[in-house]
Design goal:
alpha+beta, Umud Fragment, subunit A, 7 strands, 40% helix, 24% strand
Length: 193
């Protein structure tokens, strides 16, 4: 039972680490398969994409009506649905609208402003990521799991040492005279009985 709990805990920590790393890396760059991620901060796409979700986007050659895209609007990244595609000469513009909004966005989006098309999202993960950046979040999600992991590993090492029935010399002078290699090599000298 202890092995199952330990394996479950280690697997959970590993999965959380990989997910966190993937979100953090794709939030800063689109160099990993062209994928970029964003935390949804407003309810304009609810109920399709809830506030606090992490949206993953990827640059495409073309976009069509109905696609959910992320684009730059000033310094802010916006995730809305394309409701209309218009062509002016050689440029294509996209009219977007949040699913929860009553009207379409005033400004049309050009192809070069589009960051990518949404292909996946993970609900509530953004809230976790924002909380993890705070001191309490860092303590809960980094320090405490690290301490658990270290204690599990220490317990494993101590159990192994106990199986070998090691007894340390009584005097520190004896410890100074031997090194670890000699200690392991001549372990029968340090066994009880």
């Amino acid at each position: 039972m202890k092995k199952i709990i330990k394996l479950s805990f280690q697997t959970t920590i590993f999965v959380l680490f990989v997910m966190t790393a993937a979100v953090l890396i794709t939030a800063k760059t689109d160099k990993v398969f062209g994928i970029q991620s964003f935390i949804v901060a407003s309810g304009s796409m609810e109920p399709t994409i809830p506030v606090g979700s992490v949206v993953f986007t990827q640059k495409m050659a073309s976009y069509k009506k109905g696609d959910v895209i992320a684009f730059k609007q000033g310094d802010v990244s916006v995730t809305h649905r394309i409701v209309k595609v218009t062509k002016n000469n050689s440029t294509i513009n996209y009219q977007t609208k949040g699913d929860a909004n009553k009207t379409a966005d005033q400004n049309k989006v050009s192809g070069k402003e589009i960051i990518g098309k949404q292909f996946a999202f993970i609900p509530q993960l953004g809230k976790f990521m924002v909380f993890a950046k705070t001191l309490p979040g860092f303590i809960i999600f980094v320090i405490i799991p690290s301490l658990f992991f270290i204690s599990f590993e220490m317990a494993t090492v101590l159990r192994e040492l106990d199986k070998r029935n090691f007894v340390l010399p009584d005097h520190m002078e004896d410890l100074k005279k031997i090194n670890l290699y000699q200690y392991v090599r001549y372990e029968p000298y340090f066994r009880n009985g």
